[in-house]
Write a structure and sequence with these properties.
single chain; alpha/beta; Metallo-beta-lactamase, Chain A; eight-stranded mixed beta sheet; six-stranded mixed beta sheet; 14 strands
């Protein structure tokens, strides 16, 4: 599995011949995104920073789009979406958090989550998080301290912070988050390549992916 970051909450995951786009940035967004073909697209929020589906349709590749709560299985990828609340962009919206299982690993995407308190249904479903993608920049999402608390609560093997450079994000939010985590083992990478064995012994390792 190879994970790359394309700004805001936009993440690309490639494994085998399958590509997943999570929260692709739309053309009308002020944030800079990327364009490529995806097989699956996950959308947490109905906002131009998160729902650029046209940007991940390329050539013969038209992604299977998941943009709300529910249970899905696509190309041997198991996906569960859970509703929560976001104030991203200054407006209250439904935010979908996703639990994704592939290649024996459990990935958790919190989207643009605003509240530190997790919905009961999500708490009951989440377990053994190998990689957690967490918003840390404020701007209607979790602040650095809240993101830290959730990272500890969910006991993720690897934690990847997102949404710290978007318009309106709190200045220095990445540094604040790393400080909250007392991170001495953080890694700054162009991409993250993982196998299940790579995360089995990890707890709370911070990986900052460069845009």
């Amino acid at each position: 599995m190879v994970i790359t970051y394309h700004g805001a909450a936009f993440v690309k995951i490639v494994f085998g011949e399958t590509t997943i786009a999570v929260n692709p940035i739309g053309k009308s967004s002020k944030e800079k995104g990327a364009r490529f073909g995806a097989d699956i697209a996950l959308v947490s929020l109905r906002h131009e920073d998160f729902n650029g589906i046209d940007q991940v349709a390329h050539g013969d590749r038209e992604p299977f789009v998941i943009d709300g709560p529910g249970e899905y299985e696509v190309k041997k990828v198991f996906i569960r979406g859970f509703p929560s609340v976001s104030l991203y962009g200054g407006e209250e919206r439904i935010n979908t958090m996703y639990l994704v299982t592939l290649e024996g690993m459990n990935l958790c995407f919190l989207g643009a989550l605003s509240s530190r308190k997790l919905p009961a249904a999500f708490q009951e479903a989440v377990e053994n998080v190998d990689v957690l993608f967490v918003p840390i920049g404020g701007a209607g999402t979790l602040k650095a301290a809240e993101a830290h608390e959730l990272s500890v609560e969910l006991e993720a093997g690897i934690v990847i912070p997102l949404l710290y450079n978007v318009e309106g994000a709190q200045k220095g939010s990445l540094q604040k988050f790393l400080g909250e985590e007392n991170a001495k083992n953080e890694k700054f990478l162009e991409k993250l390549t993982l196998k299940k064995k790579d995360v089995e012994e990890k707890t709370g390792e911070i990986v900052v992916l460069k845009e």
